[in-house]
Design a protein that fits this description.
The protein has three helices and eight strands. The strands form four sheets. A two-stranded antiparallel ribbon has the order 1-4. Strands 2-3 form a two-stranded antiparallel ribbon. It has 220 residues and is α+β, with helices and mostly antiparallel strands. Helices cover 29% and strands 25% of the residues. This is MKS1 protein. It comes from Notiomystis cincta. It is found in: Cytoplasm, Cytoskeleton, Cilium basal body. Keywords: Cell projection, Cilium biogenesis/degradation, Cytoplasm, Cytoskeleton.
């Protein structure tokens, strides 16, 4: 809720096939498939934030295998919540796949290919059609199959940040002007103090006897 993207934004895709190689006890495939996604969040009710934080976008993925006879098999499903903080993130997400009871299903998967699949990928987390309060997955059998590692470079830009920056610049300019006024006022205070001291000296000079004033006067 609250998230949108540009109409030309591609929100799904398929990677290339990649051969696996043995790394220790695991078979690892390095896809090296770059993708870019731009998402926009709009806060409708300003009075709600920050008491209710926005739900961050979720990335759903499905792993398939392709054998020598061009037969596809579902190897795992998974999902990850995009990081809420900017920067570089390395996330390893475990995957699972649905299974059927009995050896016949596994033999069919091995010899013929094909396996149980999810019609709706949102079932990996919370189905898009779910409207209740409690989600039960009782009776849904799965098994773990591996993991997928994502390297994410997250960049965030907010209009509120720009407004705060403009406000800080405005406050800084105001402080600069106030600083200039304070400098002018300090110079004015010094001149006014000098004038007061000069008037006091003149008043004190006028209060002295005439002979003392004439004796202290310089000769021309």
């Amino acid at each position: 809720p609250g998230w949108s993207s540009a109409p030309f934004q591609q929100l799904s895709g398929v990677t290339q096939t990649c051969a696996t190689k043995a790394v220790g006890w695991d078979n690892v495939a390095y896809f090296c498939y770059p993708f870019t996604v731009d998402m926009f969040y709009t806060q409708e009710d300003e009075g709600v934030f920050p008491y209710s934080l926005p739900q961050w976008p979720v990335l759903y993925f499905e792993v398939l295998s392709l054998d020598f006879w061009q037969r596809y098999r579902v190897e795992g499903y998974g999902s990850l919540v995009l990081p809420a903080s900017p920067g570089v993130h390395m996330l390893t997400i475990p995957t699972w796949r649905p299974v059927e009871l009995g050896t016949v299903a596994e033999m069919r998967r091995f010899f013929i290919g094909g396996s149980p699949e999810l019609e709706d990928l949102t079932y990996i987390r919370i189905p898009s059609t779910f409207k209740g309060k409690r989600l039960s997955r009782f009776g849904f059998r799965t098994e773990t199959t591996g993991s997928v590692t994502f390297r994410l470079y997250c960049l965030q830009q907010s209009k509120a940040f720009l407004e705060n920056s403009a406000l800080r610049q405005h406050m800084q300019s105001v402080l600069d002007r106030l600083g200039g006024f304070s400098q002018h006022s300090s110079v004015y205070n010094v001149l006014e103090a000098f004038q007061r001291a000069r008037r006091r000296m003149q008043e004190a000079r006028e209060g002295l006897p005439p002979d003392l004033v004439n004796a202290s006067a310089p000769a021309v």
